[in-house]
TrEMBL record:
<dbReference type="InterPro" id="IPR013107">
    <property type="entry name" value="Acyl-CoA_DH_C"/>
</dbReference>
<feature type="domain" description="Acyl-CoA dehydrogenase C-terminal">
    <location>
        <begin position="245"/>
        <end position="362"/>
    </location>
</feature>
<dbReference type="GO" id="GO:0050660">
    <property type="term" value="F:flavin adenine dinucleotide binding"/>
</dbReference>
<keyword id="KW-0560">Oxidoreductase</keyword>
<dbReference type="InterPro" id="IPR037069">
    <property type="entry name" value="AcylCoA_DH/ox_N_sf"/>
</dbReference>
<dbReference type="Pfam" id="PF08028">
    <property type="entry name" value="Acyl-CoA_dh_2"/>
</dbReference>
<dbReference type="InterPro" id="IPR046373">
    <property type="entry name" value="Acyl-CoA_Oxase/DH_mid-dom_sf"/>
</dbReference>
<dbReference type="GO" id="GO:0003995">
    <property type="term" value="F:acyl-CoA dehydrogenase activity"/>
</dbReference>
<dbReference type="InterPro" id="IPR009100">
    <property type="entry name" value="AcylCoA_DH/oxidase_NM_dom_sf"/>
</dbReference>
<keyword id="KW-0285">Flavoprotein</keyword>
<dbReference type="InterPro" id="IPR013786">
    <property type="entry name" value="AcylCoA_DH/ox_N"/>
</dbReference>
<feature type="domain" description="Acyl-CoA oxidase/dehydrogenase middle">
    <location>
        <begin position="126"/>
        <end position="218"/>
    </location>
</feature>
<dbReference type="InterPro" id="IPR036250">
    <property type="entry name" value="AcylCo_DH-like_C"/>
</dbReference>
<protein>
    <submittedName>
        <fullName>Acyl-CoA dehydrogenase family protein</fullName>
        <ecNumber>1.-.-.-</ecNumber>
    </submittedName>
</protein>
<feature type="domain" description="Acyl-CoA dehydrogenase/oxidase N-terminal">
    <location>
        <begin position="23"/>
        <end position="97"/>
    </location>
</feature>
<dbReference type="Pfam" id="PF02770">
    <property type="entry name" value="Acyl-CoA_dh_M"/>
</dbReference>
<dbReference type="InterPro" id="IPR006091">
    <property type="entry name" value="Acyl-CoA_Oxase/DH_mid-dom"/>
</dbReference>
Amino acid sequence: MSKELFITTDLQKEWMAKIMGLESQIRGSAEKTDKLAVFPKENIQSLVELGYTTLTLPKKYGGGGITVKDMVLLQETIASFDGATALSIGWHQGAVGDLYENELWETSRLDHFAKDVLNGALVNRAASEAQTGSPTRGGRPRTTAVKKDGHWVITGQKNFTSMSPVLTHFLVSAWVEEREGIGFFLIKRDSEGLSIKETWNMLGMRGTESHDLVLNNVKVNEEAFVEFSKGPRGDKLNGWLLHIPACYLGIAQAARDYAVKFAVEYKPNSIQGSISELPNVQSHIGQIDLELMQARHFLYSVAAAYDDTDRRKSMKQELGAAKHVVTNAAIRIVDRSMRLVGAKSLELTNPLQRYYRDVRAGLHNPPMDDMVVSKIAKVAIEDMLND
């Protein structure tokens, strides 16, 4: 089961070849990244040097101007090498893609930040807080922004700040009392009062180093106040978040590849030939590939629909559904792969146990399963009432 069916353009072929050139490096560092819970800085730097982090920047700003489907293809491939590297860089790719597709800032600010991205800047949104839970649920940030002497003063603490060791910019959400809404502030890493509190100690995606971001009276100018909203951002259609299910699909592909290779090569003396000839093992492999086909076709179909601006107008809950379907399918694929391989899959030197831990992190990336199912049901009911 491969992605070749979905590689349809010269740009995709070109960038797939470039990404494959990093396979040995990224795959080779994955075990150490996980075992020591250290951020894969070398992998991210290689992607920056390759120009990868400028791809979701539109061509008119000097970037690659890739589509969401392009991003999904490349992100899935990187994730098949190492999930932590893919999820980390995916947040930057998605943030830049969304920001420039919707031109969320004033033109002069977009122009200025585009130059930063072209020069290697890395950005992620810092929106999650321990007191409010997932920002997509609409909780009001405890982080505050107060206007003093012509500057904004930001105070608060954010968690799950993925890629924190190398981010050059943070898009920080804060409650703006005087406007009674949520503002986003673009804050540079070297800002006085900004620090990283090393809190990340998780079972899965250990290498993302998604530590807490602490803001202690961080003073920024008016230009840093880049976005404002009265409601939660989770209500907005954002296809660039498909980097999340793409990551978990890539991990599932890696688990599948390991399991099939094991089945072909493992030849216990209790049988003639390899275990790949046994009906129960073939059943596992068949079910794994069926799950992969279904998940991949759904994800790429949704991405293609989003890229078509006319079709996008008809989209309702497909983006959330893609994340739900693909992530849960990925968990089942990894589980079945481990059943096929047996107890060996639990060895700490075996990549399957890492895939098992990493893929479960997808359940806690936005949007959450319960919200997806609830919204799908509400849309179905509303459509029926409006017929």
